[in-house]
Design goal:
single chain, 671 residues, alpha+beta, Beta-Lactamase, Rossmann fold, 5 domains, 45% helix, disordered N terminus, transcription regulation, transcription, lyase activity, two-component regulatory system, ATP binding
């Protein structure tokens, strides 16, 4: 109370005088009115009227002490009684227009609130002083009630405001954390911020640290309806968001000023075109890491008042949590998909693989191949395995991988001829979600699956021309881009390729790129056909008999010598695969311990007598005549097992290409 007394010295103390109250109905009416007042302006109205009518005062003022601010506020009317005043009272001197000031403390049993001051030009009488005391006592009670009511209303408003803020935070948090995909999250962020704040331009920019760029989701509203939705990549350098990310501080400024600060930020120009004047950018920080920026723009700067900014900071923190969750979910989904794809590929390989535990053969030809395998295996050089169908090219590829420094990693296998050309690119290099119709999710390609291991491409001669440059780039640059994506992914893969086709001739026929051929043909390994290694046939017969019998739970202990002799004399156009198939059929037909070979097995392995091989180097009139003769023998049929292409030992497309070059048409060979 002493501090209050120091601040409120009396100009004129009214003493302990009391007015005779019973005979003054007007005074009691005023006192009753004061006690029932609901607002400070109404209290001043009643006191002003009472001061004039009962006390003859010209003005009345309330001096209220505010201890929190350590100041005195003066409430009253101006000299024309027209406007309500509220201002700090800096001194105790009565206004110059008044020569008398009657001042009495406003005291309640619990506190001193301040003083009441009555002003007029002539001195106050004793009875007027007594009236002032009564008015002061009642005014103190009324003022205390008003102040308590005001504090209660302010507290209620504060609690209501906090409740509204909490409701907004809860609604926004529930909305954004329920979205685990970034696209859906960005849409929910824009809807919630527009709903609660009326902000018309909302952008969510996510920072890609690897490429130093921002993936930005933008939503713009007009009259409450979305008019713009877009996703775009923008470079971080030169953008306004760069300053926010580097400083981790909010940025609020005039939009025109921001364009001068970041003249190359095209999003700022977009905001200006939409009529916005103020921009606010808030960093999205979670776990001491900046994940991106929340960009807001509006034509009214008032929306970014301190109260809303406080709430927006809290919302940005929750959006950052949701973004981190979405990024983690995307990574988990990616890894899960990768595991599914890897499992699919590995299961497929296990299903397709035979027993590659050993290579059967003692011939000089097969030993020369194995020496080449040992020489090249330790390096990362690309290997091209050449040979006819069924010679065991995949087995040699597995041996190269098993003897290499990558043997502890997987060897991913792919038959290029078994996959439709339209899907080959996606299977090799992977694709992004939405890259084409049916691409419902991101998928890794074989190169990514083979990272740090080996990739075996069988039938590499069947890769379409339009896809060959992309394969060449992987071999040269050691990097890929998924179909539908633009992100460069480094890969460390040792390529082992195989084909039964004459790639050199295909290059000459312009059916294969020469640069890719030379890149593949760094270390070629030619697998000899079975007919060139007849001394290995007895070993292969015994090996396949034991393997197949074990698989079928059969017991076969002897193979007739005559059967082995006759099998060794056959030319085996289908090579080892044909031999294995015949042995499997024999095991199925065997009913005792001695392998029973069907008689038709020997005839089925003989070559077609009509087969005619034309050397690839032959050209000119002789080649034209051979092609015409083959077409006549095949009755004009080009493709198929008895077609002219098979008779000539050529691919269908190669034969057609040569026919076009030589001007051969149906009238030349059809009777």
């Amino acid at each position: 109370m002493s501090a209050t007394n120091d601040l409120l010295p009396h100009v004129v103390l009214s003493g302990d005088h009391r007015a005779p109250g019973a005979n003054n109905a007007s005074l009691y009416s005023v006192l009753y009115s004061v006690l029932t007042i609901k607002s400070l302006p109404a209290l001043l109205d009643v006191l002003q009227c009472a001061a004039i009518e009962i006390m003859g005062a010209e003005e009345v003022r309330i001096l209220h002490y505010e201890p929190e601010q350590n100041r005195i506020m003066c409430y009253g009317y101006d000299k024309n009684h027209e406007s309500f005043l509220s201002f700090p009272q800096e001194d105790d001197t009565p206004p110059a227009a008044f020569s008398s000031a009657l001042r009495h403390p406003l005291v309640t049993p619990s506190q001193r609130l301040g003083d009441i001051m009555f002003l007029r030009s002539d001195p106050f009488r004793d009875e007027e002083r007594a009236t002032a005391v009564m008015l002061a006592d009642v005014t103190a009670i009324a003022l205390e009630n008003l102040l308590e009511k005001t504090l209660a209303e302010q507290e209620e408003a504060r609690l209501r405001h906090e409740r509204d803020h909490c409701r907004i935070l809860v609604d926004v948090t529930n909305a954004v954390t329920s979205k685990l995909e970034l696209d859906a999250l960005a849409g929910e962020v824009s809807r919630e911020i527009h709903r609660f704040f009326g902000i018309d331009y909302i952008g969510l920019s996510l920072f890609d640290q690897d490429d130093s760029r921002l993936k930005t989701y933008v939503a713009s509203y007009q009259r409450g309806k979305p008019v713009l939705h877009e996703q775009t990549w923008i470079p971080l350098a030169g953008s306004l968001a760069q300053q926010v990310i580097e400083s981790e501080n909010m940025l609020l400024m005039d939009l025109h000023d921001s364009t001068r600060l970041a003249p190359h930020d095209r999003q700022l120009a977009q905001m200006l075109e939409l009529g916005h004047q103020t921009i606010c950018q808030l960093p999205l920080v979670f776990g001491h890491k900046v994940l991106g920026v929340l960009k807001l723009a509006q034509c009214r700067s008032s929306v970014f008042d301190e109260d809303n900014l406080t709430l927006l900071r809290q919302i940005a923190a929750r959006i950052a949590i949701a973004v981190d969750n979405a990024l983690a979910y995307a990574e988990i989904s990616r890894l899960k998909d990768n595991l599914v794809h890897e499992n699919h590929y590995l299961t497929e390989q296990i299903r397709q693989e035979g027993d590659f535990s050993e290579i059967v053969g003692q011939s000089r030809a097969i030993k020369a191949v194995l020496e080449q395998v040992e020489m090249v295996a330790a390096s990362d050089t690309t290997v091209l395995i050449l040979g006819e169908t069924g010679t065991g090219k995949e087995l040699i590829a597995q041996a190269v991988h098993d003897l290499s420094g990558r043997s502890d990693k997987r060897m991913v296998k792919m038959n290029c001829a078994a996959i439709p050309a339209t899907l080959l690119e996606s299977d090799l290099f992977g694709h992004e979600k939405g890259a084409y119709t049916g691409a419902a999710q991101q998928r890794m390609g074989r190169f990514e699956l083979a990272h740090q291991g080996s990739l075996f491409l069988d039938e590499v001669g069947d890769i379409p021309l339009e896809l060959q440059p992309k394969l060449l780039r992987v071999l040269q640059e050691k990097e890929i881009e998924r179909l539908g994506g633009n992100k460069v992914i480094p890969v460390d893969v040792r390529l082992i390729a195989a084909t039964n086709r004459d790639l050199k001739q295909m290059v000459e026929d312009r059916e294969y790129r020469s640069d890719l051929y030379y890149r593949l043909n760094v270390f070629p390994i030619m697998i000899p056909p079975l007919r060139e290694r007849p001394e290995d046939i007895p070993l292969l017969v015994k090996f396949f008999t034991a393997k197949i019998a074990r698989r079928m739970n059969r017991t076969i202990t002897r193979i007739p010598t005559e059967a082995i002799r006759r099998l060794s004399a056959l030319p085996w156009p289908g090579n080892i695969r044909e031999l294995e198939n015949i042995i499997e059929r024999a095991v199925i037909l065997t009913r005792g311990p001695v392998l029973a070979l069907p008689l038709d097995a020997f005839s089925s392995a003989r070559p077609q007598p009509v087969a005619l091989t034309v050397p690839a180097a032959d050209a000119g009139g002789d080649e034209r005549e051979r092609i015409l003769q083959a077409l006549r023998d095949a009755n004009g049929i080009v493709a198929g097992p008895r077609g002219a292409a098979t008779r000539l030992g050529l691919k269908r497309t190669t034969l057609i290409s040569r026919m076009q070059k030589m001007g051969i048409s149906g009238k030349d060979y059809l009777k």
